[in-house]
Target: Serine/threonine protein phosphatase
Amino acid sequence: MKRLFYSFLKKGGVKYSYKHTPMYLFRVFVLILCFSASSLFSEEAIPLSSQVERKRISTEVYFLEDSNKGLGIEKASSVEYSGKFKKSDMDPLNFGQTNFDYWIKITLKNPEKTQIRKILELDYTNIDRVDFFAENSSGKQELVNSSGMAFPYPVRKVNHRNFIYTLDFQPEQTRTFYLKLNTSGGLVFPLILWNPETFYHHNADIHLGLGLYYGIMCVMILYHLLIFLSTRDISYLFFVTNIFGFFGIQLVLTGHGFQYLWSEYPDLQRNLYVVFTGICMSSLVLFAQKFLNTEENINRNLNYSLNFTWALHALLIFSPLFLPPEFTVKVSLALSILAPSLVLIAASICFFKNYRPARYFLLAFSFLCISGMFVVLKFANLVGVSNWADDGLYIGSSMSALIFSFALADKINILKKEKEDAQRKIFEAQKENLEMQKTLNDSLEFLVIERTKTIEEQKLDIEAKAKLIEKDLAIAGKIQFSLLPSVLPKAHNVRIAYRCIPMLHVGGDFVDLISDRTGRALGIFICDVTGHGTGAAMVAAMVKMALADWSDYLSDPGYMLAKMRAQLMGKLNGNFVTATMITFYPESGRILIANAGHPEAILIRKSNGKHETYRPSGIAINEFLSTPNYQTLKTELTKGDKLILYTDGLPEARSKDGDFYGDDRFLDLLKNFSELEPELFCNSVIGKIQHFTEEEQSSHDDMAMVVLEYLG
Model:
């Protein structure tokens, strides 16, 4: 700028002398005017503050309308176009129904001495294309992200229904950003700067409110659909279709439909507003005609107009197949005013004729019309944004659906009264048949005696079969018992004991104990198969077979669990198997632990009486879960330490009042008996739990436990 100043003064050989003073002063005056003009057109940066959690900046940004839609970022960000941007005086920015491109220029400054992160939210979902530009390392503007209804939803860098951009600022840094927007419908949106934490809390609140609204609409749809199925009254079907159309409109307008349902199909997001509007309005007119009985209660010309209106909206449903959204959206907005107006007139006429159903209908439809008109007028740029314009459709449709429910209930009461009259007539007819029934009673009594005899015979047959099944279960129980370890692995410095008690004769809990060929390593295995009885026992037997070569893999119990899982695939029939596998080296006290979704192994230290729990990562064995990696943890036992493995049947045992024994009480029980030898330890723990359940011979679940004591 200084060079420009001096070159301007020296142009034409002008020197600083008194004889050139008039020309010199003229040039200085021109320069002063230029500097003043440039200051007038300069764009002030929006100051940021980490203390301001939320700030609307719509009135502090600059915008440029590109009617030719040919402007690129290089020109838009050039000095030539800097003065063409106009400062916004709108909050929110409201460009109405437009097909033009709009450029938004945002200059932000961090005046603080620390880094700041802000989230920029463009709080509107239905924009065809939004290009976001930011300065690169060389100071030039470059495209960061393009998203909108013209793109699949996953291209967005932030998974949010609105357009969200994360902005980072270094201390005292000023950054300029550009937004380029184009859409085929209404372009009304606020620009908001958030602190990240505040934004996420606000977003959670919005999702909660919309979730309640969606829940109300879904309940209304299902409830009235059930009424339609029971009454076969076509007016209920029209009402359900109307609510479905409103629900679909909201899914489009909020962006949740694009986010969760048709995220890969942007053309649906651009056209479904028109489709759902056609469904909603056509079914509304049909529902009004049926519910208000317009053929008898209004004049013929108005009823013909209603027929023509629902036919137009029915055609609107299929219009996106042949026409672009730039046209169909505007048509749907225009027709959205026609249909409610005619229905409101028809309902008013029926009301003044004292047609009883019209009372509720008119009240409910008034809520809907008021809220819907605000939304339509907002998109037509005829009203500003307000709570009614933003959230009115949620409130209005919810209230109208609720009041319509009362209207339909009133109609059901009328039908109920008619039904009671019909039933009274039927009762009188039945009374005439009473004498005939008395004559049939004698013959029926004989048939009852014969039938009772047949039932008694069937009962005896069932009891005989039950005894046979009981006998077979007892044999199965003996077979399963034979699969349990009959001889415990021997080591001079180890004591081991176990218990395995099925709920029925057979169960899904299983225990196995082995040692390697040298006797220097012991293997301990415990598992729990979902379910009870024969099915669970069969799976437990297959687990036993899958452990046939276990002794070869004692050094890596995690690998052995994965190998066992591979052998069980295709044989579990939907069952889950949880298991814990342990390898123990008596000479060193070292222990290896692997887990497949089973309760944790509990280690009670002799030295201080405290307990430790071990549950390495690993999910339960099931055919529908992905192949996991089973982690192996290592630890060491010292003299007198006890390691306890158990199934969930122990802490989840229930008393006759339904109370659970509980994990805390179970852990205290283990600590109380930690001084006992393993055999007595198992007996004492099982005995206490059976005393709690008051069921010594059976329980609510299978129970198994293994106790290992290291003698040093």
About this structure: The domain at 204-418 is CATH 1.20.1070 (Rhopdopsin 7-helix transmembrane proteins).
